[in-house]
């Protein structure tokens, strides 16, 4: 059989399996028949690579924290490196959305890097002024709410609402 035809058939069987149009064991049988058993090995290597990228994205969060709060690099260098981390997360988000449609880890990593960096910048520039800090935190909560709605991530929407309530209550307690 022609190689292009086999690729089309395999792609169609994978589509059937993902959308549960056929039982999974039927699809596995058809995939092993048309790929001569090579389909499972490709999936295992993709899962391993995906797992490594998940770990890398999650490691960027403590790396950003250490970079911003525990090093004596210049302010501009700290912000530049954290923005490089953020750019890496956003590029990963683009490829994850395109390839796997599972964007949870890059989105969380990017959101936390933005939160850490924005809080650090406000604390550094406005020297612990609570009004500016609460404005930046509320802005982050609004961004999280919009991202939660856009990407249909319930935990983002819930955490933004909780953050909004906490920041507003701390602001009003501080004003009293």
Please describe what this structure looks like.
The model has no long low-confidence stretch (mean pLDDT 85). Helix content is 85%, strand content 0%. The protein contains seven helices and no strands. The protein is elongated.
Low-confidence stretches: none
Rg over CA atoms, rounded to whole Å, is 22 Å
SS-based structural class? mainly alpha
Order of helices and strands: HHHHHHH
Instruction: Please report the distance between the alpha carbons of the first and last residues.
Output: 78 Å
The largest sheet, given as strand count, sense and whether it forms a barrel, is: none
Strand content: under 5%
Count of DSSP H/I helices: 7
**Average pLDDT rating:** 85
Helix content class: over 70%
Bulk shape: elongated
Number of strands: 0
Short description:
This protein is mostly helical and 176 residues long. It has helices at 3-18, 24-35, 39-69, 75-99, 104-125, 130-150, 154-175.
What are the SSEs and their pairings?
Layout: H1 3-18, H2 24-35, H3 39-69, H4 75-99, H5 104-125, H6 130-150, H7 154-175
What are the defining features of this structure?
single chain; 176 residues; mainly alpha; 85% helix
């Amino acid at each position: 059989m022609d190689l292009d035809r086999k690729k089309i058939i395999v792609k169609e069987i994978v589509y059937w399996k993902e959308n549960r149009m056929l039982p999974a064991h039927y699809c596995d049988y058809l995939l092993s028949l048309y790929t001569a058993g090579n389909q499972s090995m490709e999936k295992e290597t993709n899962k391993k690579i995906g797992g490594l990228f998940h770990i890398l994205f999650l490691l960027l969060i403590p790396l950003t924290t250490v970079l911003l709060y525990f090093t004596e690099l210049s302010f501009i260098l700290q912000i530049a490196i954290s923005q490089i981390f953020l750019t890496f997360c956003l590029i990963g988000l683009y490829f994850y959305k395109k390839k796997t449609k599972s964007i949870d880890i890059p989105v969380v990593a990017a959101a936390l890097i933005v939160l850490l960096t924005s809080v650090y910048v406000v604390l550094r520039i406005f020297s612990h002024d609570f009004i500016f800090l609460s404005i930046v935190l509320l802005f982050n909560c609004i961004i999280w709410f919009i991202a939660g709605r856009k990407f249909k991530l319930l935990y983002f929407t819930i955490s933004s609402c909780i953050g909004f309530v906490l920041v507003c209550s701390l602001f009003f307690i501080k004003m009293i």
